[in-house]
Amino acid sequence: MNFRILGRFLGALLLLESIAMAACGLFAWIDSLSHDDDPYPLFLAAMITAAGGAMLMLGGIVKIDRIPRREGIVVVGLGWVLCGVFGSLPYMLGDPSLPPADALFESVSGFTTTGSTVMTDIASWPRGILMWRSVTQWMGGMGILVLFVAILSYLGMGSKSLFRNESSFQTGEATTARIRDTAMTLWYIYVCITAVCAVGLKLMGLTTYNAISHAFTVVSTGGFSPHNASIAHYSHWTNGWLIELWLSLFMVICSISFLFWVVLLRKRWKRLKDDEEGLFFIVLCFASAVVIGSGVAASQGMHPLTALRHSWFTVTSIASTTGYGTVDYASWPGFALILLAGLMLLGGCSGSTAGGLKVSRLIVFLKTARFEIVKAFRPNRIFRMHVNGNALGANDRAQTMVFVSLYAFIILISCFLVALVEASNEMDMITAFGAVVATLANIGPGFGEVGPAENFGHLLPVTKVFLSLLMILGRLELYAMLVLFMPSVWKRY
Predict the structure, then answer these.
(1) Using CA of residue 311, residue 367, residue 471, residue 57, what is the dihedral sign?
(2) Any known ligand binding at 114?
(3) What are φ and ψ of residue 117, in 5° steps?
């Protein structure tokens, strides 16, 4: 392991984070002219973060033209951890301040676009801190390492290892252009979608501050809101249904692979017919909303259109792993909760801002299962498996099955550990399962005592730290985080 390379790139990443903090501090300073806002915690946090980044860069001065694969994956894993740690400073320095474990949880929840929170009275926090909260989700949505690749041209060929390990983007689809150019295109699309969403919310009556805050967190499928009631704050408005529909639209758009939108931008129309993952996701959302809406209307005597409105927003919020809330779905029938739990685990499409297992893996899993069943009575039949127009070999199928198995194993072990640690709080297994799935799949709200009407503030500090690690683990799709615990990775050469 070349630690000088790690220092150089991790230091630059912290400097990038400090710039974002300073920008939020500038917003708080301007906002203090009309609101009771204190910009100094953000400026102080920015200076501490910049100092940490500068120290790492000074210790990592080395001339390179690429990042080796091992250093690349370690930079990704450590980068997210460091951003989460330094990103917690504004929450500790601001008023009302959070304890270290709570601040870390809130910061990591932001950067990983999970949306889980320990805050009980969000509206009491300064608007500058809440803006930082939204900015962390926006930066983490497309991926802070993808942003890193996009703006630091000196990464050169080494950027591919960062780009590949940071998210679920398929680098094989991006080889037609340089990785840096693809990253720039992705961020261009990301910024444009954010701007359109914010302008639409502004035209619907939201203040500029609220429109930008919600645009940041819906496009990143993060789910943080500056209101205690989340999107339910607007549900009673005359055009509340229109606001919900607008947000649902962008939750779906950003749950589809951003490389799909790159294809549209480059006018490669033939590629559209191969996107079975996006079609599967949209059909799944519509079908789930209809089934749940019908069940809620029948069981609770709700008007069918009202039930469909609530079910559609909840389904798109859960399936996209955004985590916005308009109703307490914990009161819905049992079958609806089971279906929502399945959507939590599944998540959105590969290469999107959504979390979860990803729809493409479900498609591969189902096709592989069919292949094995048919093979039992027709062993000599030759199968050609394709997903999104890409041929899949035996190695691809095996990797998917291993990932799904490992994901399930981590959920099982994590539920046991959380329930064991929280035994003094008499946590039930439904709450433990909800907390683990909500954080590992980057959803936000879970079930039981961490449901949509609750938060994670009552958990023990050690549980919050553990769940923070699960958030990063899920955001990086396991391997880039798990590799940090392999002793052989850290050997010098």
Answers:
(1) negative
(2) yes
(3) -140, 155
Q: Which residues contact 163 (CB under 8 A, 6 or more apart)?
A: 145, 146, 149, 169, 171, 174, 179, 182, 183
- Judged by DSSP in three states, 391 sits in strand
- 322 carries a ligand binding annotation: yes
Q: What one-character DSSP code corresponds to residue 444?
A: S
Position 261 pLDDT exceeds 90: no
Q: Is 442 left (phi over 0), alpha (psi -120 to 50) or beta?
A: left
Distance of CA 352 to the CA centre of its chain: 9
* DSSP 8-state secondary structure symbol assigned to residue 18: H
455 confidence band (pLDDT: 50, 70, 90): confident
pLDDT greater than 80 at residue 266: no
Taking residue 31's Cβ as centre, other Cβ atoms within 10 Å add up to 19
How far is 52 from 58, CA to CA, in rounded Å?
10
Q: What is the model's pTM?
A: 0.88
CB 323 within 8 A of CB 223: yes
Span 419-436, average pLDDT = 89
Please give the Cα distance from 194 to 17 (Å, whole number).
20
The beta strand positions in 342-452, using DSSP E, are: 385-387, 390-392
Q: Which of 290, 334, 280, 351 is nearest to 315 (CA)?
A: 290
Where would I find the H helices in 60-99? 69-87, 89-93
Phi, psi (rounded to 5 degrees) for 352: -105, 180
326 known member of a binding site: no
d(CA 371, CA 380): 12
Q: Which two tokens stand for residue 144?
A: 């802070």
Backbone angles phi, psi at 350, to 5 degrees: -65, 140
Q: Which residue has tokens 């998540």?
A: 347
- Does 60 show up as a binding residue in the annotation? no
Asked if residue 442 belongs to a known ligand binding site, the reply is yes
**Considering the chain, what is the average pLDDT of its residues?**
84
Sign of the alpha-carbon dihedral angle for 461, 467, 472, 478? positive
In the prediction, which pLDDT does 154 show? 43
Q: How many residues does the chain have?
A: 493
- Triad 316, 322, 323: Cα angle to 5°: 90
Percent of the chain residues past pLDDT 70, beyond the cut: 87
Known binding residue 455? Answer is no
pLDDT in tens, 279-300: 889 999 999 999 999 999 998 8
Cβ-based burial of 426 (10 A; exposed 0-12, middle 13-18, buried ≥19)? exposed
Report cis status (omega within 30 of 0) of the bond before 379.
Answer: no
State the alpha helices, DSSP H only, in 152-275.
Answer: 159-166, 179-203, 208-219, 232-235, 240-253, 258-265
Rounded Cα distance, 269 and 34, in Å:
49
371-377 contacts, C-beta under 8 A, 24 or more apart: 371/397
- Note the pLDDT of residue 270: 66
